[in-house]
Amino acid sequence: MTRTVHMLWLASLAGCASSGPQNASKGIAAPEGTDIIGILITPSEVIVPSGGTLQLEAMGLNAAREAVNLTDAVDWGVENAAVLDVSNDFEQEGMLRGLTSGATIVTADLDGLQSAPARVVVTEADLERLSVAPGELTIVQGDSVQLAAEAGFSDGSASTVNGQVRWITADGTTATVSGDGMVTAERVGSTEVWVEWKGVESEPISIDVVEIQPSEASDLLIDAAAGSMADGTLTVAVEVRNNGIVPAAGFWVDLFLDPDDEPAMGDVPDAYRMVDYVGANSQTTIVFELNSAESDHEFAVVADALDAVAESDESNNWKWGSASDDGHSVGSETGMPNISIVYAGGFSTDAGTEFWIDAVNTGSAPADGFYIDVFVDRSSDEEPSLFDDGDQWVLVSGLGAGETAYETLLVDADCDACGSWAMVDGYNFVAESDETDNTLYFLTVSR
Predict the structure, then answer these.
(1) Closest Cα to residue 341, out of 211, 239, 437, 412?
(2) Rounded to whole angstroms, how far apart are CA atoms 131 and 193?
(3) Whether domain 127-210 has CATH 2.30.42.10
(4) pLDDT of residue 188
(5) How far is the C-alpha of 201 from the C-alpha of 104, rounded, in Å?
(6) How far apart are CA 429 and CA 21, in angstroms?
(7) Please, which residues have CB within 8 angstroms of residue 162's CB and are 6 or more apart in sequence?
(8) Which of 414, 420, 410, 389 is nearest to 133 (CA)?
(9) Residue 364's CB: how many other CB atoms inside 10 A?
(10) pTM
(11) Domain 339-446 class?
(12) Distance of CA 273 to the CA centre of its chain
C-alpha cells in the first residue's frame, strides 16, 4: 500500500516578506501580462551528494493558477554559501552545486516577492536504493502524470531526485517519460518505467494505458479534513479520495481560511496544491502548513475547484473544518469520538514481522477514516509525532462508537525482541475528546 503525502509550505502567496538570502537585483521584471502572486521552487526539498549538481526551477503562479517559468528572471540566494552554490550566471540560472556536508535553504526573489524556501541537504553518504512512486499506474491514453523518484542514502536519509536520475521506459511507443519523470500515455497497452543513478537501479513500476469510455468517470471527494493550531502555525491535513473507476490527474486542492460562505468557482484560496495523480478507488493525503497570528480558524477545503477532472458526482468535492490553539481539531458539541490502542503486539521470523494492532473508539460519536501506523525497532523515548510516517500503515475507513478495529500489518524486517510504537490517527483526521492516548509502546517476540 502506498500513501502519498504532499507538504505545502506557504507563509503567504499574497506576498512573502523578503527576509532571507539576498543577491543584487538583476533588474528583470516579471513577464509582461502576468500578475505573479507567489513563487515556488522545485524541487522544494532535496538531498544532493557533495560535488553533485541539480537544476532548480522557479515557477511563478498567478491568481488563475497559471504557471510561469521564472528561473532565469529571479535572483537566486542561499543562506549558507559554504554548503552549496546556486548560480545566477547567464544560462546557468538556478544550477545548484553541493560543496560540503550540511543543510541550508535556497530562495528566489523577484522585485521584492520572495519564494517559499527550498530546503537542501548536501551529503557525503552513499546512494543505496532508488524507488519510483506510485508503484503502479493506470493512465488514460493521451494523458500525462508526474512520477516521483526517491533515493535512500547510507545515513538513513531519503529525498526526491526526479531531476537527478535517468528515466527509462521499456516501451516508448506505449508511454514516454521526460527527464523529470512526467509520463505520457501514447497508446493502449502496458509497459514499465524505472530509474538509474550512480550505478543503482530501481524496481520497475507497471504502467497500463487504457482508452476511456464515455460512461466512465472519476469521482473526487474530501474524505477528511482536520486542522490544528500550535505555536503560530496552522496545520490542515486533507484526505482526498477518488471513488471513480478512472484515475484523476492534474487537479488543485484549495484551502480557504475563514470564508463567509461556500467557496465558488474562481475564488482565490489562501493556499493551494496541485495533485498529480490519484488512482481509481485510491486516496492521497495533503498537508498544508501556514503561519498565522490568530488562535483559531474555520476553513473550507475544495478539490478540483477549476473543474479539470470530469466526475460522476460534482457535489462532494468540499468539506468544512475548524482549528483552535488547543492543539487539535475542534469537534462537535454533541459528542466526540476517541480512538485509543487497546492492544499491540507481534511475532518476528526470518521472513519478517507480523504486527497486531487493536484500536477501539471509546467516544460517543463515530470516527471517520484514520491511519494506524507502526514504527519498527524504536526505543521507548522515540515516541512518534503527528504526521510522522510509520514503517507500515493501514487505513481504517471508519469506526463506530464502541467498535474495535483489528488490524494486521506485515513488515519485511526482522524485529526479534525489539521495541516498536503503534499510533492511531497520526494525520489528525479525527477530532477526539482525548488526543493523548493515540500511541502505545510494545515489544515483539520471535516465533
Answers:
(1) 437
(2) 11
(3) no
(4) 94
(5) 28
(6) 36
(7) 43, 147, 148, 149, 180, 181
(8) 389
(9) 14
(10) 0.56
(11) mainly beta
(12) 10
How many CA within 13 A on the CB side of residue 78?
22
Q: Which residues contact 103 (CB under 8 A, 6 or more apart)?
A: 83, 119, 120, 121, 122
Cβ atoms within 10 Å, residue 230: 13
pLDDT at residue 65, as a whole number: 66
| Measured CA distances, 207 to 3, 185, 188, 276 (Å) | 18, 9, 10, 15
> What single-letter DSSP state applies at residue 290?
E
* pLDDT value, residue 125: 92
Of 22, 25, 9, 15, nearest in space to 117 by CA: 9
Q: For Cα atoms 20, 21, 27, give the angle at the middle one, nearest 5 degrees.
A: 105
* Cα–Cα nearest to 348, from 420, 415, 409: 415
Distance CA 214, CA 209 (A): 16
Predicted pLDDT of residue 99 = 95
In degrees and rounded to multiples of 5, residue 283 shows phi and psi of: -140, 160
Joined together, the cell numbers standing for residue 413 give 524486517
What local confidence, expressed as pLDDT, does residue 330 receive?
Answer: 38
Q: How far is CA 202 from CA 148, 172, 195, 205, in A?
A: 12, 18, 6, 9
**Amino acid identity, residue 96?**
L
Whether residue 111 contacts residue 61, with contact meaning beta carbons closer than 8 Å, is answered with: no
| Positions of the chain with pLDDT under 50 | 1-30, 32-33, 327-334, 447
Domain 220-324 listed as CATH 2.60.40.10 = yes
pLDDT reported for residue 136: 86
CA distances 204 to 147, 183, 328, Å, are 12, 14, 40
Residue 183 · residue 209 · CB < 8 Å = no
What is the Cα–Cα distance from 271 to 38, expressed in whole angstroms? Answer: 10
Domain at 15-123, CATH class? mainly beta
Q: Which residue has the cell 530509474?
A: 195
Cell of 400: 463506530
The amino acid that residue 151 corresponds to is A
pLDDT of residue 213: 65
Tell me whether domains 127-210 and 339-446 share a fold: yes
Looking at residue 58, what is its pLDDT?
92
Residue 248 CB contacts under 8 Å (≥ 6 apart), including other chains: 218, 220, 242, 275, 277, 278, 304, 309, 311
432 contacts 338 by C-beta, under 8 angstroms: yes
Segments making up each domain of the chain, as ranges: 15-123, 127-210, 220-324, 339-446
By C-alpha distance, which of 413, 274, 406 is closest to 350?
413
